[in-house]
Amino acid sequence: MLPLGSARAASGPGGSVEAAGRRPHDPGRSCHLGSAGQSTRRPIRGQPVVDFNFTAEENAFRKEVRAFLEAELPPEKAFDHEFNEDPDLWEFAFEFTRKVGQKGWIGLTWPTEYGGLAAPPAHRLIMAEEFALHEAPLVNVIGWGLAAGALLVGGTEEQKKRFLPGIAAFDRFWAEGLTEPDSGSDLASLSTRAERDGDDWIITGQKTYTTWGHHADVMFLAARTDPDVPRHAGISVFCLDLKDPGVTLTPLYNLGGGRQNHTFIDHVRVPGDQLIGEQGKGWSYIMNAFYAGGGLGARHADMQLIFDKVVAYCNTTTRGGRLLIKDPMVRSQLAELEWMIDCMRLMTYEALSNIETRQPPQFGGALSVVVMKEHQLQFAQIITEIVGPLAQLRTESRWAPIDGGPEAWYRWSFANHAGGTSQVKRMVLATRGLGLPR
Ligand SMILES: Cc1cc2nc3c(=O)[nH]c(=O)nc-3n(C[C@H](O)[C@H](O)[C@H](O)COP(=O)(O)OP(=O)(O)OC[C@H]3O[C@@H](n4cnc5c(N)ncnc54)[C@H](O)[C@@H]3O)c2cc1C
In sequence order, what are the residues at sequence separation of 6 or more whose Cβ sits closer than 8 angstroms to the Cβ of residue 234? Predict the structure, then answer.
């Protein structure tokens, strides 16, 4: 592991809380934490130094992504599709995602034979950052993230060729079917059953919290295929057709304004070739995607976008005759927000570095997820403190500051349960990462 501390000091991404005069974030700087050979910097005290600069080729790709977003994403169509059910925006999101697919960017880093462009992992991070900074409604993360991830890791050659090009072109919308009413954190206790019937499987059970289920065509579904083996070894994953008459979805609205679903699966027949990967290996596919891998999301860019809006607000809003940005308490709170963003950015860049240098993620990848999930809540809380009582006003109110952002960001922050809670990630960190006994 290269010394993050000295590297941070050497190249200093993020700047200080001289936020008042700070220009909007420009992430044209980078990573390569582990690839000392690419650094142009000289070692400090014999240690290689992290180079945060993106290469010319990476910057050119960022420019291309920005140009695409400027051409294809009118600002009024930018939205967070996790918390917004506006049908017109959703229609746009489908169209937009298909265009991203036509660019080849959904399968950006996948091998070309599966519909990808075989681009380096840094490109994926650049794309994630730019899409987040523009609030681009790229849908189907369960398809290109979870299902494609499982297929790339465990799928047969035939399955990869059959499923992946379609996912890369956004042929179908995927939902995730893991959680059940009695199996959340303890997912291995799931009781949805898949029983053999000739070449097919008959699946019966109930899933819950199904995000985007009502928009989706198929589900990445975990079911128990063998009840007589240790519970982790008896789970397989399937591609389940949500349009089958045996599937019923009922809504489950969340505080953030988004919708999850209860999904009832009543003796649904699934062809044998819709089992993903190998029978009984479902647990390892799911764990790799959610619990072990640090991933290359760009939550730091989501937060940067919000932070820039809050700084702009503080630069133009007075309280007690003084600009908020001049208030020492506000400055200290802004510093804390920016520190959180930088911390998450560095952890993401470290994950990229680990991928590039093929090192396993530090602490099983759970550390960055814990930090992200816990920061998400604190971040929203601090913003409400900066803005004061008006932070409770919804976007509909003419008095709502920053278009009602603080109120919405606060409600959205509770979605940090999705994908597993931070308490459970801490357990993974302790056992897998630090090797502590269970
Ligand atoms: C907005 C949102 C979207 C979601 N989308 C999906 C989706 O699309 N598909 C899907 O399958 N699921 C989805 N989920 C479900 C999500 O994965 C679960 O909520 C999560 O895994 C936790 O399960 P649970 O809600 O049953 O909580 P529980 O497991 O009942 O946990 C309750 C509390 O107990 C704590 N806890 C549990 N076990 C331990 C332990 N051993 N040690 C310490 N603390 C513990 C937890 O941290 C939590 O605080 C979504 C959830 C949310 C909130």
Answer: 224, 225, 226, 227, 228, 280
